[in-house]
Design brief:
- It is a single chain.
- The protein contains 21 helices and 26 strands.
- By secondary structure, it is an alpha/beta fold.
- The strands form seven sheets. A seven-stranded mixed sheet has the order 13-12-14-15-17-16-24, sandwiched between helices. A six-stranded mixed sheet has the order 5-6-4-7-8-9, with helices on both faces.
- It is globular and about 95 Å long.
């Protein structure tokens, strides 16, 4: 970018920028309605921290935002290689947005690998800030560059800003008693300072964060602060950045309230704590660390003051076994995992179905099969959640649609588990877990009352008049059995995985009883009260319905908006409850000539919809470890409308 060269006469007058006036001699400020920034570098360059800090300041400024962290599975992937590239994309705007954006307007590339891994996503005319210090011959050869892309003309279509980030960071920290290697580690803070200047981000929060994070290492805290401020000052003084940008707060987008930026896993953790408080039950988490679910274990371990107990088990089976034991003991019990862990937990989930105890099984889906792609997103565990147990073992399934929605989904899963005495599977995924967006903190009186009544005494009278406790005598409306806390006098009863006698709970091998119990457990799940499916069809005359579930909500909604703005008529509906389906789903599907179901799998919801409702639903599928792009979906949906 170049600044306008003004004559002395022109400089004497105040220059008008948008609706603002600026003093003479200062740089231009351009107003934008939205920006997409991607930070990219080695997995050891601190790109996730840089992106997280920029996001936090953006949230405090009041923009709507959506993020997409993307990083290798290895703790420290090979430096300077394409598989070792870590990136963080942030989309922020002065209006309501739904996705992290299709293509970045700004790419910050800390080395040749970061540039090569991401350049295909960057549109012509975009800004590229490159750390020239890392473009050595050896580093470029490592990723297949035979000539420097900074010199061979391959980047001529972009606004390239060559910045010696490493050298400038080391120079800024020369007065600190740090080795060169230690000083170089702060180059991400220099980049953050530069971008904070470019986009008028607040700085107080980051400075406070650095002081707190490195409170026990004041020299490191001071060095990072110095690098951050040096980056900001560089943007202010260099001629290469003649323009900065403003994106106004999205003040008209959000209802009145108190907001904070929140990731899906954090929202889910808060939802679990809130559910336990609303149920007046202690929260127990039995878990084994697994990407991308581990953050929930980390977060819940901080909240002992709310009656939360966390147990890091030796394996997945022990984790759910402990959680089921806690459910038997009267706790709101949770186990967290990802797809491979659900496979290991399947027998105990079946035991929970047989025992008819409330248990939340949180599956943060990732790419499979087996250990697959630990840090990439997918939503391919739906059929496992639906059928992945031996015998007829039906389980309700709930799926959040955005990071903030994970809070409400956790509350809903707890409601179902406690009301109907059943394990519930909650299907989030890596995109939701690690992504973030603004969340309105709810008032306590807005939360549902989840309190339950434990069994207190006998509930059945035998033919001889004796009053006894029957553990499998059911509520006539919910078909839930009573929840009897161990140690309550007179409520002793047998538990285990062998089939129970209806009512008494005694072991039973009777064929007729088994048939009855299987059908009763299924009827309990089928009878769960879930809201009808809402359909967004403004014209009321659309022929095509796009049906989604889970994290595809953002890309689908963004694509639908594009089509409607172009004059197309298309309806949209999004499922939260996948078992049981909303009662009106069949009627909704029957109103449309075409039904398109985009999924990050090979068509699992489409398979269920076709089988249940005999609808010729069309699948649109992607399994590359990344979320859909809005433009990609808009093109596919347009073809469906016109086809």
């Amino acid at each position: 970018m170049t600044s306008k060269v003004s004559s002395p006469t022109e400089q004497a007058d105040e220059a008008v920028v948008g609706e603002q006036r600026k003093p003479p001699g200062t740089k231009d400020v351009r107003r934008l309605d939205r920006v997409i920034i991607r930070f990219a570098g080695d997995s050891g360059d601190g790109m996730q921290l840089t992106g997280d800090r920029f996001t936090s300041e953006t949230a405090s400024f009041g923009n709507d935002l959506s993020t997409l962290p993307n990083f290798p599975a290895e703790i420290r992937a090979p430096a300077g290689t394409l598989p070792g590239v870590s990136s963080f994309q942030l989309h922020f705007a002065d209006h309501d947005i739904l996705t992290p954006g299709d293509a970045p307007n700004v790419l910050v590339a800390m080395n040749p690998a970061a540039l090569k891994a991401n350049i295909a996503d960057v549109p012509r005319g975009a800004e590229i800030i490159v750390n020239t210090d890392e473009f050595t011959k050896r580093a470029m050869q490592k990723v297949g560059y035979t000539t420097s892309p900074l010199e061979d003309g391959s980047l001529d279509g972009y606004n390239v800003h060559p910045v010696p980030l490493t050298t400038m960071t080391v120079e800024a920290l020369k007065d600190f008693e740090l080795s060169r290697k230690e000083a170089e580690r702060s180059k991400n803070m220099f980049a953050l300072g530069l971008l904070s200047w470019m986009y008028h981000r607040p700085t107080e929060g980051t400075e406070k964060f650095l002081k707190t994070k490195f409170a026990k290492k004041p020299d490191i805290a001071a060095a990072n602060l110095a690098a951050f401020r040096a980056g900001w000052n560089f943007g202010e003084t260099t001629e290469d950045f003649a323009v900065s940008y403003e994106v106004a707060p999205a003040s008209k987008t959000f209802p009145t309230g108190t907001y904070r930026n929140i990731s899906g896993n954090l929202a889910l953790s808060y939802g679990l704590v809130a559910a336990s408080r609303q149920a007046d039950l202690p929260l127990y988490l039995g878990s084994y660390p697994i990407t991308p679910a581990s953050d929930i274990l980390h977060e819940l371990s901080k909240h002992k003051n709310f009656g939360v107990r966390t147990f890091q088990a030796e394996d997945e089976i022990a984790g759910i076994g402990a959680a089921l034991g806690a459910a038997f003991g009267g706790s709101l019990a949770v186990t967290t995992t990802s797809g491979p862990g659900v496979a290991l937990k399947s027998e105990t989930i079946g035991l929970a179905v047989s025992l008819e105890l409330p248990l939340l099984v949180i599956d943060i889906q990732r790419g499979g099969p087996s250990t697959g792609l630990p840090t990439k997103t997918e939503q391919a565990d739906l059929l496992q959640a639906m059928y992945g147990r031996n015998g007829e073992a039906p389980v309700p399934i709930v799926a959040p649609r955005t990071p903030a929605d994970c809070f409400d989904a956790a509350m809903e899963a707890a409601r179902i588990a406690l009301t109907y005495r059943t394990p519930v599977l909650l299907l989030s995924d890596g995109y939701l877990a690690n992504g973030s967006e603004p969340w309105r903190i709810p008032e306590v009186d807005e939360l549902p009352d989840l309190r339950v009544q434990f069994a207190q005494g006998p509930n059945h009278t035998l033919d001889d008049g004796t009053e006894v406790f029957w553990p499998y005598k059911r509520d006539p409306q919910t078909l839930a059995r009573p929840w009897a806390v161990p140690g309550t006098p007179g409520l002793e009863h047998r538990i285990g995985g062998i089939e129970k006698q209806d009512g008494s709970g005694n072991i039973s091998y009777d064929p007729a009883n088994h048939d009855f119990m299987v059908r009763t457990r299924q009827a309990k799940i089928d009878g769960i009260d879930v809201p009808d499916l809402d359909v967004d069809d403004p014209s009321g005359s659309a022929d095509t319905l796009v049906l989604g579930w889970g994290s595809t909500y953002g890309p689908i909604t963004a694509a639908v908006r594009r089509l409607r703005n172009a004059g197309d008529r298309i309806a949209q509906a999004h499922l939260r409850h996948l078992n049981p389906f909303p009662r009106n789903l069949g009627a909704v599907l029957g109103r449309y000539d075409k039904v398109v179901i985009p999924e990050m799998n090979l068509g699992q919801l489409a398979t269920l919809v076709r089988a249940r409702y005999l609808v010729d639903a069309h699948s649109y599928n992607q399994v590359n470890g990344m979320p859909f792009k809005a433009e990609q979906l808009a093109t596919a949906l347009k073809e469906a409308i016109d086809g």
